[in-house]
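Batch job 17 of 40 flagged for manual review because the log was empty.
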Amino acid sequence: MLQERDYSTVLRSLSPAAKLWLAMGLIFSLIFLKNTYYAFAVIAISIVTIIREKQTGLFKLLMVTIVILFISMYGIYGTMAPNIMEGDPVAFRIFNLNFYTTGIAYANRYYLRVVPLMCALFTIFLSIDITDLSVTMCKAGIPYKYVFTFVDSFQVITLLRKEMEQIRDAQRARGLNTEGNLIQRFKAFVPIIVPVVANSIIKIQDQAIAMETKGFNSECKKTLYREIPAYKWNVPVAAFGIALAVFSITYRILVALKVIEPFISNII
């Protein structure tokens, strides 16, 4: 299926390859550099980008996960981290619970790596066009069948969600009660999921026939109907991601070998 491109922002204009290189650089840098200011800078830039991309609705779900993660990690590690020893200083008290400085530092070690990655990767991957990504994968030498399976999995998830919504509305029109307690919802789940599975099997058979008639299993070289246009920021962004990854790995190796002091890291 042809998809209309949306190049309304700089992030959406970037090619999938440039975004993947940038994602790689961010992953390695957040894991190896271990800098508080850098972690908060990535979070701030990601939030600003999400607002500019007008994806705040989906980001609210991620924010709920981030808040739950904050409460659980700092609540557990702050009070009873494995490396808290007797006599460690208490940072503060909440509801007669002591939150130790060592435990807070232990929570920072993981929280300030996970949350920036969640925000940054959410921003990057949400802006990737799946069709453009499949073209990039084919040009990178990945076999056509693997690329098709990867892309088709995303389309199947979308189709199944729409199919379930339509069947649920149809069952409601027939008098099925889908609201109420957990038991009532479970009873309503069966009349919905059975037609979804049956329709999915039929659609898979139709898709298999259509693929065979279009020569999917033919051994000839596949051609691409879609070309990714060049954008002036593709090369600089990709180069930045590669340089950031190389610098992070090199820095971590030199620090581990005690060739240099950890002049960037301020997270234990």
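Reviewer: the log was empty due to a logging misconfiguration, but the result itself is present. Residues 134 and 147 are 6 Å apart (CA to CA). Unflagging and moving on to job 18.
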